[in-house]
Amino acid sequence: MPTSKIILLLTVISLLSGCGAEDKTRTAGGDGRSVQARVEVVTASELPTYHAAPATVVARERVEVASRLMGYIREINVVEGTVVKAGQRLFTVDPLDVEGQLAQARLAVELAENAWRDALADYERHAALLKEEAVTRQQYEKMKLNRDLAATRLAQARAQLATAAGQMRYASVNAPIAGVVTRKLADRGDLATPGQPVIVLESTGPMQVETQVPEAILARIKPGQSVRVEIDGQAGPVEARIARISPAADPVSRTFLVKLDVAQAGLKSGSFARVLFPLASRQALTVPDSALTQRAGIEGVFVVNAEGIAQFRMVRSGERRGGRVEVQAGLTPGERVVVEGAERLANGDHVSSTSPSNPGEVSETRRLPGAGGATQARGEAALPSRGELTHKVTG
Description:
This protein is α+β, with helices and mostly antiparallel strands. Helices cover 28% and strands 37% of the residues.
């Protein structure tokens, strides 16, 4: 066999045995990759606890607009979402019955005026005749009484006319406040009756949050106190201030009504909310949100041991607040976890806590087989693969 082929065969055997040793080294102590990441020591801290009370966002002013007249609705000038000003017309009721009452009142006034003029003329004539002693005092007093009765009937008829005219004004129903129409409960042609809402109006200014609290929580709060409120559709909790606390409990639920003022803009009436009433604090382990990562659908963190080797560990997370998350199980105080760069890690990687200039760059070194444990850095010329060497020997 030529000497050159013997040397090449020995080289192949040496490389194959080195690859096997490298695999054992990766299994025992990591694959030799060095990843730059930020590490934080897990410590116990005070975590505030809250009583989360379900609540609802409501408008500060809500008016159910109804008609004072009974009649068919002639027209409705608004729909849901219409923004109206105070005094703007909302709907009109057919005033047919009121128009008839108004006509009768006008005729009554006309008759009362004629009767009063006749009684006044009789009184004045009898007053002149009394001076000439042409009539008796009794006849004069009777004409005076008729004049006074006619004046009273005239005043009564005019009052009835004013009442009928006032009822006529209620045929056109106007908005009592400035706001937005949230509900339209009737349509043109429906019968409007006194006390039956037709339109629901809500103010468009700052909103309120309404909730019910038990007596145990009532002892911990007071008007003017600031609390946090979680509202669906908002990125995070918003600040609210307790405006009113009902002094009487609901007889069924035994809870007390609490109203809170919320200055946050863009809230929608009827949205679901949770009012976080503060309670006593407790000890808990927390890590930054960025420390949590997913591996095969399992949530966990990378824990760095004393040798700087990262291992993925499953954890059970709890409350999230202020950019940190509570770890209920899986970690102990004093352990080091990766809080930045976890997405670039794998089990067995060496973690360097010095942040690189380019966070996306991963520095990596590979141990090469052979005497002295020489290393090959990424970017250097690589040795031929096992398949390439085998091809050369066979050739």
